[in-house]
């Protein structure tokens, strides 16, 4: 932040993270049947309507718990590197990593050694399509509402509580750090090796970004196993407009407000090139579906309803019941 500049309005933390998957059934099987998340919305990519958009979250589909995917089976794998969002970390309750290590191993997921980052235990691994994931043991997620999912294969005491953090490899961190500070209100929390942690609010789970400095890193590319964008929370439309003004003052070029029906979005690329979104908490996933039956049928935004027949014909068949038992079949 520049001298004499008023402290920026801070976003509330991570709203959702969207990544690119391969086969849609494999994606569904893993996140429902192994990770124990609920499919809270089965929809389409609003810019590419012959592609699914899956939303996985806690039992209530609360903001801050939501990892979403565009399944593009024909896309080449990502290239890991700078300027593309990296590892997605979930938070789980203290004492859960032993259970998760055994569960993932039984599910034929290769896990890395448990690490310690900023005083917390972290279990890194990858999903079936190469997305870097981790689970972080922490009690610090006070700003996020969590609803347990009764049909999850993961016991309630070990269920994922929220999105915890996301990493971004950069060749030069200064421009990205300055933009994230001035545009979104992130502040420095400390360093561990080449990892610089930024946070907002109480800097709890779901309110963190890790900038990973690697001057020699090749430029990363989108592909299967890549994070497409990271969305940050604001409570309402008015706050979103205020944050968009901050984005402009920080030198960013925003998309303007786009109505995604379940929330409203503003997109911008931070200086290294990673795609960011600012998303409102509401109106939420219950606006067009009974909360008891979220994700059970294909839901289209109203402006696509007249194309439903063609869209359904273009989308591959998927089986949610198969996904719910995927973990028990491994």
UniProtKB/TrEMBL annotation:
One family name in Pfam for this protein: Glyoxalase
| Top-level lineage group | Bacteria
Q: Which CDD domains match?
A: PcpA_C_like
Per the database record, which ranges form the VOC domain? 13-138, 162-281
Question: What InterPro entries does this protein's entry cite?
Answer: Extradiol_RC_dioxygenase, Glyas_Bleomycin-R_OHBP_Dase, Glyas_Fos-R_dOase_dom, VOC_core
Protein's UniProt name: Glyoxalase
Organism expressing this protein natively: Spirochaeta lutea
């Amino acid at each position: 932040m520049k001298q004499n500049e008023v402290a920026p309005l801070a976003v509330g933390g991570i709203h959702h993270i969207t990544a690119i998957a391969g086969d849609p059934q494999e994606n569904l099987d893993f996140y429902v049947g192994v990770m124990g998340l609920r499919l809270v919305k089965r929809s389409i990519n609003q810019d590419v309507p012959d592609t699914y958009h899956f939303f996985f979250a806690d039992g209530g589909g609360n903001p801050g718990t939501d990892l979403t995917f565009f399944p593009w089976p024909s896309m080449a794998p990502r290239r890991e590197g700078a300027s593309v969002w990296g590892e997605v970390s979930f938070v789980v309750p203290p004492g859960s990593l032993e259970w998760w290590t055994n569960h993932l191993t039984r599910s034929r997921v290769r896990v890395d050694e448990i690490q310690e980052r900023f005083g917390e235990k972290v279990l890194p691994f990858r999903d079936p399509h190469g997305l870097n994931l981790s689970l972080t043991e922490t009690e610090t997620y006070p700003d996020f509402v969590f609803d347990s999912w009764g049909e999850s294969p993961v016991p309630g005491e070990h269920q994922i509580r929220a999105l915890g953090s996301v990493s971004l490899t950069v060749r030069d961190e200064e421009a990205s750090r300055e933009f994230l500070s001035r545009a979104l209100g992130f502040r420095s929390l400390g360093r561990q090796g080449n990892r610089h942690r930024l946070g907002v609010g109480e800097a709890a789970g779901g309110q963190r970004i890790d900038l990973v400095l690697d001057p020699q890193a090749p430029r990363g590319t989108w592909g299967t196993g890549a994070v497409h964008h990271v969305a940050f929370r604001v409570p309402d439309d008015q706050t979103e407009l205020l944050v968009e003004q901050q984005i402009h003052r920080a030198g960013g070029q925003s998309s303007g407000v786009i109505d995604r029906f379940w929330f409203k979005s503003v997109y911008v690329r931070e200086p290294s090139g990673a795609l960011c979104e600012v998303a409102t908490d509401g109106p939420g996933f219950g606006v067009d579906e009974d909360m008891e039956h979220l994700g059970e049928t294909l839901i289209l935004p109203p402006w696509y309803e007249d194309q439903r027949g063609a869209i359904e014909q273009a989308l591959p068949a998927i089986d949610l019941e198969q996904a719910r038992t995927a973990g028990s079949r491994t």
